[in-house]
Write a structure and sequence with these properties.
- The complex is a heterodimer of chains A (218) and B (659).
- Chain A is 76% helix and 0% strand.
- Chain A is built from 7 helices and no strands.
- Chain B is mainly alpha-helical and 659 residues long.
- Chain B folds into 3 domains: 487 residues, no CATH class; 54 residues, no CATH class; 31 residues.
- Chain B is built from 25 helices and 4 strands.
- Chain B has a two-stranded antiparallel ribbon with strand order 1-2.
- Classes of the chains: A mainly alpha (218), B mainly alpha (659).
- At the A-B interface, helix 4 and helix 5 of A face helix 25 of B.
């Protein structure tokens, strides 16, 4: 293990974090998708570094899968969905861009405060990896609850998943190969189901605003 | 078909009763483990088993005697007055008897709870049998909800005992409960009092009773009021006396006070009722109160170190339990005959039934005298014993006890007086004078088996009043089982026997002799009137203010009669009065008022003041919680998010980070 390697790892994680934070700031959904792709790429790099630094060859496979799925397939797929739905911008968010940006910073602080003390116990000797992955997770969650468009919620879920993936790498060099494989397969299925769901929703309500789905009250 | 079903029920009751008597006379029935083929008891707590110890046997006897008479009466009652789903009613009736029996002879906690719940459910279906009436449905719902609250308390009490002693056998719990901490014992007591007290109809947990009992078909009301509520008493005795072996005196005082409240509240409300079956239901509350007073007194006296006096109080409670089972079954059957034949339970629409159904009228009168504690009937015996045990507290030398017991004796005296007052109304308005409605005037004679059933019960009321030693002897083994001693050796099976005077007091009475004297007096009057010693009877029209031919409108009404008492206790009743006037057309003078109608509705004040806040609290919290359910997916996710953040903060600042 080299200090340079750890530095590079932290850098990749930081890029992923900044990308997550940028997700909160963007209002154009296409930009959101490409930011997600960038984040996934950063995470793939981080995974590759861990594989290299800790001689864990199966993580190379995972990294390759992230590149294939999260960087290439899913963004392309989401772009086609966006095109077919015809939505481009987020309007009427539950939290404004400014609030979201501040909340993102707050969540980063929270993650650092809560997870920072236990970071030394992680398998990967990087002080930043665990708090950063937790922060990405929380930011993804915040994206999920603060945006109306169902498609953005799908992206929020994907961002959360990136955070979980990174945390898994940091804690155990991957939460078990098979589990990771399963998670990746889930992502694909999720994206497909989301597309079908969104198309039906658009047909029925003429909107992809999740607020239209409120009629369970009683 | 009905005849066969109810005949079978009667035969079963008689067999169970014989077995009960055998146990009460000294036979020992070994506890039976019951195993269901193919089922393995997962833990000892879930084992099944039967036992019939003296306490069980006594309640089996109570159940069997009333059950047999009610089954007999049901043959005619159901045939004549129940017009829908008779077969279902008959089947449920049998199931109900079975569940009552199982409650009495359950030998393990698990079986007891199953039987208890079965009893509640079956009786619920019986209460809502006439489900075309909204009243019955709402009464059923009230009954079901309150019963389940009570069942939860029973569950806590029995499972608590079972877990604390590590066994599900009732007999094994009894031997293991002595070593429990006072906290556990007190907790079990409170839970048992709430659970069993609700089933018994103890104030203020009684509110289901005056709703559910009138709504059920009358033979079921008789069984519920006569027997089922006694299962509450059985459970209380089983837990407090047999399983826990008595307790500190504050248990006794608590039961005593709740008993006194039940007795007084019950009888006062009974007076205000104009619905015959509701009136009887409130009297059940009153009589349960009297029984509870006996139980409470026995706990206090036992704790103070007077087992003989405790046995006296407990004997009063046991006897009153049986007596009430007899005369309340009788009265409900009588009320059922009156209500069935006229189609109404409203006293103001009855009247004159003595000519239509003389047999029922006579037995109802006997039952009314018994419940009013008049000698030579059984009610007098048990209340006399209770008075005795209350007065005997003066030999304990504890001022607090003396004061409380004296107060209790006063309450009991007032209760008995008011009960007699109330039954003058119940009998007089329903059966005497002229019919107050067309339906009462044309009522058909009730079926023979119904009259026979009430006749049997009336005969037993008289028998136990004349020869109370019979009942006391039968109660002697349960008394020994609970209090360790029975009433003195003075009791024997002779018919003309005197009740034992406890050693510390001097009074005693010979009910047989009283009955003999009363009988002689009545015979003398009959002979005198028959053979012309009495002055000649002149037959004349009654004075009618100059109006020719008095009508039923001129009669005394139930409402008018009870006003005398309801006015005194106005603050308590808080009656809602409704005076309705119809003024003759074109005038505004009061004098020309054509119709005046006075109606009065007395709402149980415990209902709004005690139960409404609970209900409103529930509804309020349900409403508030439902506001969380916005239906917005973001909101649900936000709850999760907030929970996560809060938990993380708690982890950071409260919990210590552990490696």
């Amino acid at each position: 293990m080299t200090d340079l390697g750890t530095l590079a790892l932290d850098l990749a994680a930081a890029v992923a974090l900044v990308a997550a934070w940028l997700c909160l700031v963007h209002t154009r959904i296409a930009a959101l998708v490409s930011t997600y792709a960038v984040q996934s790429a950063a995470i793939a790099v981080a995974a590759g570094l861990v594989a290299y630094l800790y001689q864990a060859p199966d993580i190379y496979v995972l990294a390759g899968m992230v590149v294939a799925l999260n960087v290439v397939v899913l963004p392309w797929y989401l772009t086609t969905v966006l095109r077919s739905l015809g939505v481009t911008r987020m309007v009427n968010m539950y939290a404004s861009v400014r609030t979201s940006a501040l909340a993102g910073l707050g969540l980063l602080l929270l993650a650092a405060a809560v997870v920072g003390p236990v970071a030394p116990y992680a398998a990967v000797a990087s002080a930043g990896l665990l708090p950063i992955s937790t922060a990405i997770l929380l930011i993804g969650f915040f994206l999920l609850i603060s945006r109306r468009k169902a498609i953005v919620q799908v992206i929020g879920l994907l961002v959360m998943n990136n955070g979980i993936f990174l945390a898994g790498i940091a804690l155990t060099y991957g939460t078990g190969f098979v589990v990771e494989l399963g998670l990746a397969a889930n992502l694909l299925v999720l994206a497909i189901v989301a597309r079908i769901f969104l198309n039906r929703m658009k047909d029925t309500f003429d909107t992809v605003d999740a607020d239209a789905l409120r009629s369970l009250e009683g | 078909m009905l005849r066969a079903t109810f005949g079978l029920a009667m035969a079963g009751c008689l067999l169970a009763g014989l077995q009960g008597v055998e146990v009460l006379l000294g036979a020992v029935v070994p506890a039976q483990a019951v195993s269901i083929p193919g089922a393995v008891a997962a833990t000892p707590l879930l084992s099944l088993g039967l036992q019939e110890d003296p306490l069980s046997a006594f309640f089996v006897l109570v159940l069997a005697v009333s059950g047999a008479a009610i089954s007999l009466a049901s043959i005619g009652y159901v045939d004549r007055y129940v017009h829908s789903r008779e077969a279902a009613l008959a089947a449920l009736f049998n199931l109900f008897l079975l569940s009552l029996l199982l409650v009495c002879v359950a030998g393990t906690v698990f079986l007891f709870l199953v039987a208890w719940e079965g009893m509640t459910l079956v009786s619920y279906f019986l209460v809502v049998h006439e489900d075309h009436s909204a009243e019955a449905r709402s009464a059923g719902l009230t009954y079901l909800v309150i019963s389940h609250g009570a069942a939860a308390a029973v569950l806590v009490a029995l499972l608590g005992l079972s877990v604390a002693t590590g066994t599900g056998q009732l007999s094994a719990i009894a031997s293991g409960a002595g070593g429990l901490s006072p906290w556990v014992r007190d907790g079990v007591f409170v839970a048992a009092l709430v659970g069993f007290g609700t089933k018994a109809g103890m104030v203020p947990l009684h509110v289901w009773l005056p709703e559910a009992h009138p709504a059920a078909p009358s033979n079921v009301s008789a069984l519920m009021s006569g027997v089922m509520i006694k299962m509450g008493i059985y459970g209380l005795l089983r837990v407090v006396w047999v399983l826990l072996g008595g307790g500190p005196s504050w248990w006794g005082y608590t039961i005593l006070l709740f008993g006194a409240a039940s007795a007084l509240v019950g009888v006062l409300y009974a007076i205000a009722q104009h619905d015959l079956k509701r009136l009887l239901a409130y009297h059940s509350v009153e009589n349960i109160g009297i029984i509870l007073m006996g139980i409470g007194a026995s706990i206090v006296l036992f704790d103070l170190g007077y087992p003989a006096l405790a046995a006296l109080a407990m004997a009063a409670a046991l006897l009153h339990t049986w007596n009430h089972a007899l005369f309340k079954s009788l009265l409900f059957l009588g009320a059922g005959a009156a209500a069935g034949a006229t189609g109404t339970r409203d006293l103001e629409k009855l009247g004159g039934l003595v000519r239509r159904m003389p047999g029922i009228a006579l037995t109802f009168l006997l039952g009314a005298m018994a419940i009013s504690a008049l000698p030579p009937f059984n009610g007098f015996v048990s209340e006399w014993l209770l008075f005795h045990s209350l007065f005997s507290a003066f030999s304990t030398g504890s001022p607090a006890t003396e004061l409380v017991f004296a107060g209790m004796a006063a309450v009991l005296a007032l209760t008995s007086g008011l009960a007699a007052y109330c039954f003058v109304k119940a009998f007089g308005i329903a059966f005497l004078a002229r019919p107050r409605s067309e339906a009462a005037a044309t009522a058909q004679a009730p079926p023979g088996t119904l009259t026979a059933g009430t006749g049997v019960l009336a005969g037993l009321c008289l028998l136990l009043g004349i020869a109370p030693a019979l009942a006391i002897n039968l109660a002697s083994r349960p008394l020994t089982q609970m209090v360790g001693t029975s009433l003195g050796p003075g009791t024997s099976l002779s018919l003309i026997s005197s009740l034992p005077a406890p050693s510390t007091t001097s009074a005693g009475f010979a009910p047989g002799i009283i009955a003999l004297l009363l009988g002689l007096a009545i015979a003398g009057i009959w002979v005198a009137s028959r053979f012309g010693v009495a002055p000649k009877v002149r037959v004349e029209r009654s004075w009618d203010c100059g109006i020719d031919a008095p009508t039923a409108r001129m009669e005394y009404t139930a409402g008018g009669y009870s006003q005398a008492v309801t006015r005194i206790f106005q603050e308590f009743f808080r009656p809602k009065e409704d005076v309705e006037r119809t003024v003759a057309a074109g005038t505004r003078w009061d004098l020309l008022t054509r119709v005046r109608r006075f109606s009065e509705e007395s709402v149980d004040p415990l209902l709004p003041s005690l139960y409404r806040p609970i209900r409103d609290g529930f509804l309020w919290s349900a409403r508030e919680v439902s506001r969380l359910q916005s239906g917005r997916i973001h909101a649900y996710l936000a709850y999760m998010f907030a929970t996560l953040v809060v938990l993380l903060l708690v982890l950071r600042f409260v919990g210590s980070p552990s490696p």
